Amino acid sequence: MKKLISKFVLSLAFAASVFADPDISKISNSFDDLGKSFASALPQVTGMQNIYADAFIGKIFPTAIPHFGGGVNASLIKVDTSSLLDVFDELGFSADGVNKSLVLPSASVDFRVGGAVLPFDVGFIFLKTPNLNFKDISLGFTTFGVDLRYALLEDGLARPGLSVGLGYLYNGMDFEYSKKNSGVKYDVGIQTLYTTVQISKKLIIATPFAGTRFMVSSHKIDWEWNLGPVLHDRGSSSSDGFDFGNIQTQLYAGCGFNFVVFQTTLILMADVAHAEEDKVFSGALSFRVKL
Q1: How far is Cα 85 from Cα 93, in angstroms, rounded to an integer?
Q2: Which of 68, 100, 134, 177 pairs as cysteine with 113 (C-beta 3.0–4.6 A)?
Q3: How far is CA 106 from CA 31, 122, 184, 244, in A?
Q4: pLDDT digits (tens, 9 = 90+) for 105-147
Q5: What does the alpha-carbon distance between residue 86 and residue 141 come to, in Å, rounded to a whole number?
């Protein structure tokens, strides 16, 4: 018993000598701010991966050739992670490898199929990764989405394709920082509803396109931290449903390069709903088989 008491006293002394008493309220607010940053960025970086160059890929029935496609996508987006630095600073963690902004990679697979009779198509996107380890940091991602587009104009000889659409997207991210017997865990889940308008024109070997997207999101975050075996805390927060008062407006443009049944698509997107210093830019590259 004396040995147990001695170890307990020593651990208290160690925590008191090495770590400053953290401001719990500041940590909670910083985690909330980080959740808002990811709620803005994650739907953009994954949602743009399910954008096809053609505003409408064509019907699956009735048609001489059924129209569908699928492939793999990769994208990058710059995310404001200064709130995470505030957490690290408050907890006395080393910020090596953590910057004020993070270039976040993402990848996915997608499938799109044309509609029957009416001029519409339906797309699906999916991603599930194991935790990816970078030094003391571990990241894991989950994405699922579905969308429907309806063609107002079908691409013709001298006429562009024009479609409107709506969709749903779920993004999940698991973040963990661990150093010896201290660390931070952070889980975020984001649901997004969006509408789109896209125009495109199929040329001989290229399909240039442009569009706009309006998004509203809801998010829930869970977090916890510990400093050694003594100091620890956990909490959670969430948005009050979908925030229709904070609509993200995004503009995108790109080009699809066609070769027989293969299409490579390059997309650039900008979130123009935020102040100049908070604008979010991203890019994606897709490789697909498309009929």
Answers
A1: 9
A2: 68
A3: 22, 22, 22, 26
A4: 788 999 999 999 999 999 999 988 777 777 778 888 899 999 9
A5: 23
